[in-house]
Amino acid sequence: GEPHLLVASEDITERNRVAAALRESEERFRELIEELGVGIAVLDRDLRVVLANRSALEMLGVTSDQLLGHVPHASPFESLNEDGSVMTPEMQPSRIAMATKRPVRHVVMARRRVGQMDWVWYLVDAVPQLDQHGEVRRTIITFHDITERRRAEEGQRELHEALRVAASD
After folding, report:
1. Could you say which of 4, 18, 133, 138 is the most buried, measured as most Cβ atoms within 10 Å of its Cβ?
2. pLDDT, tens digit, for every residue of 10-55?
3. SS3 string of 112-125?
């Protein structure tokens, strides 16, 4: 029946240290992803883009608003396989990786906006990330712009062909 005061306290020093370390780690990760010259996009299990770095946006010629939350295969792009045939959405590396639950590596493909003339060539990897039940929770897509390399290879092929024709004449 006497008035009294109960006080409970908890030392949160360790919790604050861990939270600060986590923030620092996330910032280093964010800086790394943003500064890479490789396009990086992360798709959720519904194939919607949940993350794209600056290089990805620049290579694709889109803004983050145009890409984030969207299915990239449904956007106004056309795609080609390495041999020049049309790449359907089902042939996209990300869809194959999700369907097979296995990485798809070193796919050469081209994309352009519908109605544009120039194709941009990419070397693409798609790596699915599985949850504890073996289901795809996201897929990490990395891509390099190899357009200049493709042009140089084509120029070299044309030169070799011209030399072959000249030699046979």
Report:
1. 138
2. 999 999 999 999 999 888 888 888 888 899 999 999 999 999 999 9
3. EECCCCCCEEEEEE
129-to-40, 45, 105, 123 alpha-carbon distances in Å: 14, 10, 14, 20
Distance (Å) of CA 60 to CA 80, 132, 149: 15, 33, 17
Structure tokens at 20: 């600060």
Per-residue b or e along 1-20, where b marks 16 or more CB atoms closer than 10 Å to that residue's CB: eeeeeeeeeeeeeeeeeeee
pTM of the model: 0.76
- Any idea which residue has 């919790």 for tokens? 15
CB neighbours of 109 closer than 8 A, spacing ≥ 6?
79, 80, 81, 82, 87, 93, 121, 122, 124
Both tokens of 149, joined, read 């390399």
Q: What is the pLDDT of residues 141-158, one digit of tens each?
A: 999 999 998 888 888 888
